[in-house]
């Protein structure tokens, strides 16, 4: 017998097919538009109330205009990178897919967010690396190195010309004087400390300051202070005779200076017209070392400021895992936590389609697990020990407290604890908080009868005489369980 077709059902099915086809076409159009989107230059208008006084509203604001680049609804100060555009496209496509397939759209969105986090992390590393490289090239050491390299390159060229002329047979005035190799520029104690302070500030800003680097800087600064270098500089700047300055320097420092090797000692005007004492000394190798007292004191002051600021930062941030956790890293941690919570909610919804809003909120806040473990146990040993043990007291009957934690010491009852955990296992309870509430509640809040095992009845008799079991306790003798009478 041929069944008659249902015209109403046919119409519904035809409509659904047409709707699905239309929706799919619309989705493909949207995805195609996103895939082919290109950045466009725009003018950004920003209201400003700077310099305005009295009463005013938004209409009175000065408007500052600047150039920007717009891509898929977001405006950038400069042209977005390929990675930024890929991330924006993926996020936009995820939004389209979520309309028809929420789970697929959410998964794509999570991939895009993860990619963006990786790109942001890479960009932070690049900013740190490039910034440190620029700072290093502008330190006194970096400047000296460039100066020395340029001088050495010039020397090598002149030496080559000289050797070439000599090989060609030139002599005397025609040959000229052989070029002299350059010496490295002065690099003082203050220069070294100031350079280290500059790099430490940069490292701390990016959360890269490690304990070893800061420790080496601290040791060097401490050594300079202990050897009286700063004190000697202040003495020199005050106008003390050079003999007193040299004596002060030699009194504590490892390096010794001979006053007869001082080749120059004069006051000169430095930056801002401030007079500074400049002392030049010839070292053992015949090289001239220059000490500019004001410049050195400024460098030491900068190093001291950095030390004080970051040492105090370490004292105030003992709970932090790093010395200088950056704001961006904290924001990154917040984003990661939020993304993890939302992923948990979506997973819980997928496994529990009828979940209530209250349940989803509990999953989002970590109160309810998105994927509860059936194997794990939640054990609070402190609560268990306190429930079955007895407070420890001293000879005078006063409670005994732990010197390290300040908590009261409890004499544990291992037999009762073992009986409790066996009862939890027998009743398939995996949370000691729940277990204690049920276990202790069986006898009106008191500890229920314990369950002890013995090989023979003689062992049970002995336990009873020692007070380890009493009438009413459940015991096991030779594998058989009963109540002790």
Average pLDDT score: 75
Order of helices and strands: HEEEHHHHHHHHEEEHHHHEEHHEHEE
Helical proportion, percent range:
55-70%
Choose one word for the global shape. Answer: flat
Radius of gyration in whole Å, from Cα? 40 Å
Q: In what order do the strands lie side by side in the largest sheet?
A: 1-2-3
Stretches where pLDDT falls below 50 for ≥5 residues?
318-324, 443-451
Main sheet record? 3 strands, antiparallel
Beta-strand proportion: 5-15%
What distance lies between the first and last C-alpha atoms, to the nearest angstrom?
A: 80 Å
Tell how many strands the DSSP assignment holds: 11
Short description:
It contains 16 helices and eleven strands. It is an alpha+beta fold.
Commentary on this structure:
It is a single chain. The protein has 485 residues and is α+β, with helices and mostly antiparallel strands. Among the domains are: 187-325, no CATH class; 327-372, no CATH class. It has 16 helices and eleven strands. β2 (62-71) and β3 (74-76) form a beta hairpin. Residues 318-324 and 443-451 have low confidence and may be disordered.
Descriptive labels:
single chain, 485 residues, alpha+beta, three-stranded antiparallel sheet, 16 helices, 55% helix, 12% strand
List the helices and strands and how they pair.
Blueprint lengths: L6 H29 L4 E9 L13 E10 L2 E3 L5 H19 L1 H37 L1 H28 L4 H4 L13 H17 L5 H16 L2 H9 L4 H11 L9 E8 L5 E8 L5 E5 H24 L10 H25 L5 H8 L16 H8 L1 E2 L18 E2 L2 H13 L5 H10 L9 E4 L2 H9 L8 E4 L2 E4 L2
Parallel strand pairs: 9-10
Antiparallel strand pairs: 1-2, 2-3, 4-5, 5-6, 7-8, 10-11
Helix pairs in contact: 1-2, 2-3, 3-6, 3-11, 6-7, 6-10, 7-10, 8-9, 8-10, 11-12
